[in-house]
Amino acid sequence: MDPRKHFSALQIIHHVLELHIQPGDRCIDATAGRGKDTLFLAKLVGETGHVTAFDIQQGAIDSTMALLHDNGMDSRTSVILDSHAHMENYAEAGTISAITFNFGWLPGGDHNVFTRPDSSIAAIEAGLRLLKDDGIMTLILYYGRETGFAERDALLEYLPTLNSDLYTVVEMPFVNRQNCPPIPIVIFKGR
After folding, report:
1. 8 Cβ neighbours under 8 A, 6+ residues apart
2. Of 10, 24, 120, 166, which is most buried by a Cβ count within 10 Å?
3. What pLDDT, on a 0 to 100 scale, did the predictor assign at position 118?
């Protein structure tokens, strides 16, 4: 990464994922949104890997499927209209290399529909059970306006409770950016 660039939380998280994900891996995009992370993961896992993406909004599912189709990634992806809290219904424990979350609302969507602390924490817990022993989970906490502060606070209170013998949690807040900058977080499973 060029240190002179103004990096976004997403660029930082993508760099971490690039360092970890290998061809043939199985990954989850827990918040499909418009499909950009799903596409990014699909390119990393290659032809022998697989990415499962979740979202609760049909518009997000449609956007994601169209983007994947336009980029020839249909065969290595599954896009599911369901809550990320139910991801254990679609994968076995200990089989997933990486899981990524973007908490907040759908880009360009209705700001009255956004992730909530109860289902987000349940999804993180489910995801941690699905991860391989050397797996990673990435989170970006988007918050601000009339939504997101309660979820941000709940997640930042919850994450320090994870067993440090099993997980390493790294929070990377932007300390010199104004106006509620997103918070990138990485959870490493294993010591």
Report:
1. 182
2. 120
3. 79
